[in-house]
UniProtKB/TrEMBL annotation:
Residues 1-58 form the HTH lysR-type domain. Keywords: DNA-binding, Transcription, Transcription regulation. One of its GO terms (cellular component) is protein-DNA complex. GO terms for molecular function: DNA binding; DNA-binding transcription factor activity. Pfam families: HTH_1 (PF00126), LysR_substrate (PF03466). The keyword Transcription applies. This is Transcriptional regulator, LysR family. It comes from Pediococcus pentosaceus (strain ATCC 25745 / CCUG 21536 / LMG 10740 / 183-1w).
Length: 301
């Protein structure tokens, strides 16, 4: 086991994709895949659940990511141990950031990268579910989180602001009769069968979707419950039902990738935007300062 492999592991875990990680690391995908398989063999444990178009950390993978991140941080600090410029007045600061799985957060990466270079901050990024992000921010596991507005707005302990526009969409099989309509509402979906995300992954959103069906005079028929976006869209492509997703998950390539159609839903679901949040009562003044810098940097981009 070497430091390079650990750095590769963190990149793959952050991207959730060998292809995206390989592009950022400037190495070939087969080489990166070999590094990950060798690492799993050396640890004698499975770090990733390999899906058709993505990778997801196992429970052991999540634990190992936290330990690996600390090792890399410690090694980075050692590199500057005798650096004359690394004085007590300008140390490297480390912040843990939780973010949503399956979402396109290029703006998050760009903003954090800019702030990191300008303020001598090293961010460690951890993918998580909306529920766990809120719990992690409350417990101090995360210093900042990027989450969905419904999971932060009612928590008086959190300070949050919108970061990225986001709204609900529906995925249909490519030849579905409703695929010809430019946009849809829940009233159009009365006779459909659905594929829903496991409730423990995002209970507020699942409850919201179910309540919209009731408002329109029917109960949603869910034949399948899935753990992630890739699984849901794959089942939609096979004609097993319609799947909900967010616009911030859609990179414009999903329709082609899965051979499906994706439509906006016109119903009013309230604010579903991606927000950045911090705890109001936090001892570390740096977190509040970085929170404000992230907001300012995003406005100026």
């Amino acid at each position: 086991m070497n430091l390079t492999t650990l750095e590769y592991f963190v990149q793959v875990a952050t991207e959730g994709s060998l292809t995206k990680a390989a592009d950022k690391l400037f190495i070939s995908q087969p080489t990166l895949s070999r590094h990950m398989k060798n690492l799993e063999a050396e640890l004698n444990t499975q770090l990733f659940v390999r899906q058709s178009h993505s990778l997801k950390l196992t429970e052991n993978g999540i634990t190992f990511l936290k330990a690996t991140t600390k090792v890399i941080q410690d090694v980075d600090a050692l590199k500057h141990f005798f650096d004359q410029h690394q004085t007590a007045s300008n140390p490297t600061h480390y912040l843990n950031v939780g973010y949503l799985e399956n979402f396109r957060l290029e703006k998050m990466y760009a903003v954090l990268d800019q702030i990191s270079h300008e303020n001598n901050i090293q961010f460690s990024l951890f993918p998580d579910t909306p529920t766990n992000l809120s719990k992690g921010l409350s417990s101090g596991k995360y210093d900042l989180i990027y989450s969905l507005r419904p999971y932060t707005t009612d928590n008086v302990l959190f300070k949050s602001t919108d970061f990225l526009e986001n709204h609900l969409q529906i995925a249909l099989p490519i030849n579905h009769p409703l695929a010809m309509k430019p946009q849809l509402s829940f009233s159009d979906l009365k006779n459909e069968t659905f594929i829903l995300l496991d409730r423990d992954k995002s209970p507020i959103i699942v409850d919201n979707v179910l309540s919209q069906g009731i408002k329109n005079g029917y109960n949603l028929k869910a034949n399948y419950y899935v753990k992630n976006l890739s699984q849901g869209l794959s089942m939609t492509a096979l004609g097993n039902g319609l799947a909900f997703l967010y616009s911030a998950m859609n990179d414009g390539q999903l329709e082609k990738q899965y051979r499906i159609k994706i439509k906006d839903l016109t119903d009013n679901f309230g604010n579903q935007n991606i927000v950045i949040a911090m705890k109001r009562s936090v001892d570390n003044a740096l977190i509040g300062s970085i929170f404000e810098k992230i907001i300012d940097t995003k406005k100026n981009r």
